[in-house]
């Protein structure tokens, strides 16, 4: 039952925190910087002043063996005027453990090797900060569902730098936390990190400078997101075979805000007794990726209230077009809806990444299904993750009509939110007593997040069959939740950018 889920958990955590620059994760490592597909930016403070650096980062993920791997990240950065340069190489050990009986994984990150040098040119002198010790650990836990992966992280660390070959030290204490999610329709990771910097310099009789010490703090608020937008591109020429088409645009952006409180230093680097307080905001965006959808054509959807919903899903390949009629008024069938949900959450692509080369693909679970390999994989994966069930252990009943209660239960299970219900609640529908006990939690969650609603008279009508048009509208709301509502909740409520 859990083999496929183990692969998912490994993939999710591996990608979420440390990934290649081409991925959705634009926060490489834990050094407080952000990146796009062209460059990396980071602000450092160990010199006693905020210095913005820019350059290149290379992430080399290791191969996972027995739940462990080592990733290497190298940085080559400099300030805009070239007076400050940074060279850094870090090897991080990643260890994954799955909680027995739960769809969760715990991941630990530790620095096993690190080197870093910062050089600062000041007139005729050069200051050098050399990393002597770097103790670091981060731990995350991920909860996995068919549609969304949710992760929370805690960060602790300490850096010690040598200043100019034994003439002083700089210590940086690191503490922070992060949350995030990832789905086929978007992802967001946010981190809040606090740095406490302590500098101690010895007296230098040769240069006539006295001993000094200072302490400063920096608060880093980082956010990285991948967003997906669906737009209709209308054709202006009249003599074309189709009026327009849908386009899917994927954007990746990252933002970091540094809020610092440092001492004001004189020309010799000595604290003056005054404070230097400020805030800097840095944003980067990768080049958008655009993909055109198919051109659906249904003769019976002209002027229909669900025309746009059906058109979007057909263009994206979520609801397959078979012939030129959609038949919006007939009931949706179990199999067609389950396949649409699987395509919507991209379950097969995710499952392929979870599965290693030695693992056999799950066999079809139901005797009354005769499906293509792709569709059989969708049903098997969703059944294995508890999103759908058969009417018996070996029968799926693919042509059975779906009720409103069944549809909302499938969608909420795919989100993994059926556990997030209060102990006592009221649904607020006039026919609350007619809602099956097995569906009440899902109806509560689905109505709370805007997936489903009652009719104008306040009835939910749990046993009413869902038409194909209504199913299309529900699936579009599901997409909107995944690409918009989750992002607002994770990013906009945590980070006030």
TrEMBL record:
Gene that encodes it: xynA1_3
Keyword vocabulary terms for this entry = Carbohydrate metabolism, Glycosidase, Hydrolase, Polysaccharide degradation, Repeat, Signal, Xylan degradation
Which N-terminal residues, if any, form the signal peptide? 1-24
What InterPro entries does the annotation carry? SLH_dom
MF terms from GO for this chain are: endo-1,4-beta-xylanase activity
Q: What is its EC number?
A: 3.2.1.8
The SLH domain, residue ranges: 293-355, 362-425, 426-489
Against PROSITE patterns, the record matches this protein to: SLH
Record has Membrane as a keyword:
no
Broad class of enzyme this protein falls into: hydrolase
* Listed name of the protein: Endo-1,4-beta-xylanase A
Q: What processes in GO biological process is this protein linked to?
A: xylan catabolic process
Q: Which Pfam families does UniProt cross-reference here?
A: SLH (PF00395)
């Amino acid at each position: 039952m859990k083999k496929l889920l183990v692969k998912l958990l490994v993939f999710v955590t591996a990608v979420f925190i440390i990934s290649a620059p081409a991925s959705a994760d634009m926060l490489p490592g834990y050094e407080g910087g952000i990146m796009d597909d062209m460059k990396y930016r980071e602000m450092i403070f160990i010199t006693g002043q905020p210095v913005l650096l820019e350059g290149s980062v290379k992430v080399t993920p290791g191969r996972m063996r027995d739940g462990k791997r080592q990733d290497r990240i190298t940085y080559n950065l400099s300030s805009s005027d070239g007076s400050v340069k940074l060279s850094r190489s870090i090897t991080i050990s990643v260890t994954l453990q799955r909680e027995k009986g739960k769809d969760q994984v715990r991941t630990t990150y530790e620095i096993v090797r690190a080197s870093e040098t910062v050089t600062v040119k000041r007139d005729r002198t050069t200051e050098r900060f050399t990393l002597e010790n770097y103790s670091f650990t981060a731990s995350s836990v991920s909860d996995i569902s068919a549609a969304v992966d949710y992760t929370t992280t805690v960060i602790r660390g300490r850096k010690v730098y040598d200043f100019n070959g034994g003439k002083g030290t700089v210590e940086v204490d690191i503490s922070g936390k992060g949350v995030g999610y990832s789905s086929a329709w978007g992802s967001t990771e946010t981190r809040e990190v606090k740095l406490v910097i302590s500098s101690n310099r010895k007296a230098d009789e040769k240069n006539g400078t006295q001993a000094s010490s200072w302490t400063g703090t920096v608060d880093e608020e980082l956010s990285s997101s991948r967003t997906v937008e669906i737009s209709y591109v209308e054709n202006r020429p009249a003599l074309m075979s189709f009026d327009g088409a849908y386009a899917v645009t994927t954007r990746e952006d990252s933002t970091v805000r540094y809020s610092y409180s440092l001492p004001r230093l004189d020309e010799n680097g000595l604290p003056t007794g005054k404070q230097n307080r400020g805030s800097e905001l840095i944003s980067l965006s990768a080049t958008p990726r655009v993909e055109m959808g198919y051109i659906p054509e249904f003769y019976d959807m002209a002027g229909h209230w669900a025309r746009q919903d059906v058109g979007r899903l057909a263009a994206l390949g979520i609801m397959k077009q078979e012939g030129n009629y959609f038949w919006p008024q007939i009931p949706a069938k179990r199999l067609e809806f389950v396949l649409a949900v699987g395509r919507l959450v991209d379950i097969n692509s995710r499952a392929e990444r979870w599965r290693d080369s030695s693992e056999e693909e799950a066999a079809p679970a139901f005797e009354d299904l005769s499906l293509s390999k792709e569709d059989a994989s969708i049903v098997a994966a969703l059944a294995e993750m508890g999103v759908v069930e058969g009417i018996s252990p070996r029968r799926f009943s693919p042509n059975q009509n779906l009720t409103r209660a069944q549809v909302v239960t499938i969608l909420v299970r795919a989100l993994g939110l059926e556990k997030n219900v209060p102990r006592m609640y009221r649904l607020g529908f006039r026919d609350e007593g007619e809602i099956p006990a097995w569906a009440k939690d899902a109806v509560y969650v689905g109505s709370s997040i805007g997936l489903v609603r009652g009719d104008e008279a306040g009835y939910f009508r749990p046993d009413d069959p869902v038409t194909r048009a209504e199913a299309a509208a529900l699936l579009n709301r599901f997409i909107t939740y995944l690409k918009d509502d989750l992002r607002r909740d994770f990013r906009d409520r945590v980070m006030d950018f």
